[in-house]
Write the structure tokens for this entry.
Amino acid sequence: MMQINNLRPLRGEGRKLFIETYGCQMNVGDSEIVLSILQEEGYRYTEEINEADVILINTCSIRDNAEQRIWGRLSEMRRLRRAKPSLVIGVIGCMAERLKEQLIEGEYGVDIVAGPDSYRSLPQLLRKAEEGGKGINVELSREETYADIAPVRLDKNGVTAYIAIMRGCNNYCSYCVVPYTRGIERSRNPQSILREARQLFENGYREVTLLGQNVNSYKFEDVDFADLMAMTAAISPELRVRFATSHPKDLSDKLLDTMAQHHNICRCIHLPAQSGSNVMLAKMNRKYTREWYLERINAIRKRMPDCSITTDIIVGFCDESEDDFRQTVSLMEEVGYEFAYMFKYSERPNTFSARHFADNIDEETKGRRLAEIIELQNELSLRSNQRDVGKEFEILIEGTSRRSEEQVFGRTSQNKVVIIARKEHQKGDYVRVRITSASSATLFGEEIE
Ligand code: SAH
Ligand code: SF4
Ligand code: F3S
């Protein structure tokens, strides 16, 4: 019999692939890796879901509402499949890893399920599905970093890009599903990271964000995260470098010193606090205290007084008392965050807190607490932005403003959006501006000639 496999025909053969991405930037990066793998196989990317022969949904499990959205999408997909019975539908990413066979067996009956470490097997899984079977691979890996795969950039702004430098997480915060869906922490070879960053710079990109669930614990042989940042910043003074996310317990003085020494490492640190109460922090297994966290904030301010600090907060975690909550409020006031992502606690099956603590703060209390800190944060953001009025910044132009064709927008090193009048600006230009006015979300400025 002829060994078709040995001839390695392109199995995609021009079939059209649509990818929809939910969740964090890691997922966005993974979709770009998936596209790269499947283009090699002959699939062609389409932005038109109705044209697709294959639809992949890259999913998130971080909170229940993230998963509910995806169930809603899957039920819409059933309609598409009724119209086109040959359509292959796959679920990839964190929800695939969490629910495994359930996604194939349930009423939504998808054809393919692939977890975050099994994307290299997508061509085989698709082949199975195209032959009428089901393809599943949810194996997690100790080594996979996809370091050799050049992502196909889906976000085409052409100026800013994310580079995944590590995968997985070993922190096991008690509420969090990520260590289960993404497996153990592993760092990518720095040479492959630098190659990718250099390539982006040569292609006109002017900003890279080094990405991981806990970038501070990056370690590859003798290269730590601060070393990697310094090496990336050395590519060109015209290349801005950012990172996300750092865990407070690992925010080292060495990293802060490195940031302070390089003007092109951006003055912005996302430092999720989660709570201001030591009781909650211990229960969350965050491995730091309020005092430790505030000491790190001081360490940042001492070296970089102009550094913006942003955070993530969870309200309504198990047993959170009114007093615990007030401590979160006071922490936010004390730090004066530039920006915050704020969430109600959502119990995730099989996490430590789901197994050991009761999700005992009622929905109404969670809602009230969330509303209070959202209002507070709006106030803090507005105050921070108003302090910028009259000051000068260098912004990197990213494109046309959503409000008007006559305006362009860029970001400051502190990651704040500034809108200015359009002149001869091109995407990727650095422009010096003075801030003239501010809202809680945006700065308005004028170019300094
Ligand atoms: N690795 C990053 C965060 C990834 S998840 C870090 O540790 O900083 C992004 C945010 O989602 C978390 O910081 C946390 O605030 C929130 N989050 C995670 N699990 C959650 C849950 N079960 N309920 C509500 N919010 C959650
Ligand atoms: Fe989740 Fe904590 Fe890891 Fe962040 S550090 S991904 S919150 S376990
Ligand atoms: Fe969601 Fe997975 Fe990211 S759970 S937040 S997509 S790591």
